Structures are given as structure tokens and as C-alpha cells.
Amino acid sequence: MKKKEVTGMTVDSGMTQDPGTTVDSGMKRDPETTETMEKEVDRRAFLRACGLAAPVILAVLKVPEGLIGQEAIEGAEREALLYAMGVDVQKCIGCGRCAVACKTENRVPPEEHFFNTWIERYVIYSDGRVVVDSPNGGIDGFPELPEEGETLRTFFVPKLCNHCQNPPCVQVCPVGATFITEDGAVLVDEEYCIGCRYCVQACPYGARWIHPEKHVAAKCTFCYQRLDEGLVPACVEVCPTGARLFGQLGNRANPLERFRRFNEIQVLKAHLNTEPKVLYANLDGEVR
Ligand code: SF4
Ligand code: SF4
Fold first, then answer.
1. Residue 37 pLDDT more than 90?
2. Cα 24–chain centre separation
3. Which of 85, 87, 98 for a ligand 2 pocket mutation test, highest count of atoms within 8 Å of Cβ?
4. pLDDT, tens digit (0-9, with 9 covering 90-100), for 231-268
């Protein structure tokens, strides 16, 4: 299986052209760093023994190598490397095919509440009420609207991890299991994750969940295993209306950059300064 360098780490990059085929997209440490790994495993055992009750101890732990590599590349040069997703809200019809494809591609458990991406329906009523629902993440479609007032507008908003450039989930991870790749994807190293849930609580977008069997944090990876093969994320590939686009920022040849140039772009919860890389067009002011 092909490996992709990720600032001192390697990632399995299994290709999944066939939607019925699934791959292990778990990230693995470079085998050459076995000695370091052993020390890190010791560190995990140590943290478990501490019950994570000593933030002072956690604060002196080593900064993940992935972050050091990221800081070395700045400005426009860095932006040109970064993967991002565009979402045109006006084009989304709420069919949920993206959420289904994501579950298949990334082996997300079938039960409700486990999603890397999901669809929210917003209903804006004339009396000012805003009702948001997302039954089973939108996978099974949406029920008829109840007859309870005049609706001004209804629309669908696909959501996922924003692969923030300034991600609180990375900042709070006590063991460096969550990291940013050079190309801007926020990933979780399952071998390091201790399932402490700090990142789940820190993410302001509700994008993380704990895997019920692996007991590690999980989230959208931009289908990182597909990118190395020149494929776009599964959700982008299956969207029948082209509501989702994917590419690298600053690459004027790709559809994402054209999308960014020709639309008024907004991001979710911009005031939090997380610098999301999921870019929305035609986003209603009521969307949270
Ligand atoms: Fe982390 Fe949440 Fe931002 Fe994704 S959306 S990078 S999980 S803070
Ligand atoms: Fe919207 Fe496209 Fe997802 Fe369907 S596949 S819900 S149109 S983003």
C-alpha cells in the first residue's frame, strides 16, 4: 500500500474506487521511529496512570512533529498547499448521498450519531422562528414539514469537520494524537489517541465523535486516503448537484478556486477565529 509523508508521519493511502470497498484509513507512525513510538506508548501509559488529572504535566509534553513542519511554511506559499472544500448551499437538495458515501468510504458505524458529514435542514418561519433538524444525518431524507406557520425559506446545509487552520481540537489534545498535515488536513493518529474526549468537547462544530469499538476520536479526514490517488473525497464525488467542490487553495486551475473567486464566501462561526477551510457560498445568516 502506498504511503504518504505527513511531516514525519506516514498515512495509509488505500484507494477505494469501488464504493462497496472499504479501506483502513487509520494513520500510522513511520516505522523508522520505533524507538520514539515506544517512548510515546510509555507516555500514554503514564497519562492513563495519571488519569489525565495533571494538566501541568500535560503542558510540558513534546509538541507533535507535524506542527513543527507546518509552521515552517507560511503565507501564500502555505495557502497554495492547503486542501479545502467548497459548499454551495443553494445547490444542496438534501438528498443525503454524501453522508451515505462517507459512511461507506470511511467505515463510519451505521448507527445514528456517528457521522463525519451530515445535512441540516433549516426552516425559517415568518414569525422569526428558526427550526433545524437532521434526522439520521439526512441519510434517510427529511420528513414533511409540520403545518405550523408560514415558512419564509427552507434550505439544506451540509456540515463536516472544517479542517480549521487554527483548530482548538489540536490545541487541547494532551498527547499530540490530533495533528495538521502540511496540506492542511486535520487528522487523528489512532495509535496515539487515548479517547479522552477533550477534542470532542473543544470542537465548536460538533465534528468529532468517539468510535464505539476503537474508543478513539474520529472525524472527517477529507478522505485523505483518496487524495494521494488523485481522487476527491467521496462526498464530493457522489453529490448529484455539484454542491460540494474540493481542491487546493490558490490553485487557479481547480474548480474550488474559481468557486472562491466568484462567490461571496462565508465560514461557520467566523468569530471564533478557527479559520475554517470549509467555504460556503449562499449561506443564510441564520446558519449557526
Ligand atoms: Fe478540529 Fe472541529 Fe475544526 Fe475539525 S472543525 S479541525 S474537529 S475544531
Ligand atoms: Fe446536498 Fe450534494 Fe449532499 Fe445531496 S449529495 S445532500 S445535494 S451536498
1. no
2. 17
3. 98
4. 999 999 999 999 999 999 988 888 999 999 999 999 99
Predicted confidence (pLDDT) per residue in 173-182, tens digit? 999 999 999 9
Q: Whose CA is nearest to atom 3 of ligand 1?
A: 164
From ligand 1's centre to the CA of 91, what distance in Å?
24
Q: How far is CA 38 from CA 8, 42, 49, 141, in A?
A: 16, 6, 16, 47
Q: Letter for the amino acid at 278?
A: V
pTM value is 0.76
Q: Which ligand is nearest to the CA of 219?
A: 1
- Please name each of the domains of the chain with its CATH number: 2-61 (no CATH), 78-281 (3.30.70.20)
If you measure from the C-alpha of residue 205 to the centroid of ligand 1, how many angstroms do you get, rounded to a whole number? 7
* Beta carbons of 287 and 155 less than 8 angstroms apart: no
Length of the chain: 288
User: Ligand 1 centroid to 218 CA: how many Å?
Assistant: 11
> What is the whole-number distance in angstroms between the Cα of residue 278 and the centre of ligand 2?
15
Q: What average pLDDT is seen over the chain? A: 80
CB of 208 closer than 6 A to ligand 1?
Answer: yes
State whether the beta carbon of 184 lies less than 6 angstroms from ligand 1: no
d(CA 115, CA 137): 7
Task: Give the span between the Cα atoms of 52 and 276, in whole angstroms.
Answer: 29
Q: How far apart are CA 255 and CA 275, in angstroms?
A: 21
* Chain center to CA of 79: 18
Answer whether 221 contacts ligand 1 (Cβ < 6 A).
no
Q: How many angstroms separate the alpha carbon of residue 90 from the centre of ligand 2? A: 11
The rounded Cα 123 to chain-centroid distance in angstroms is: 25
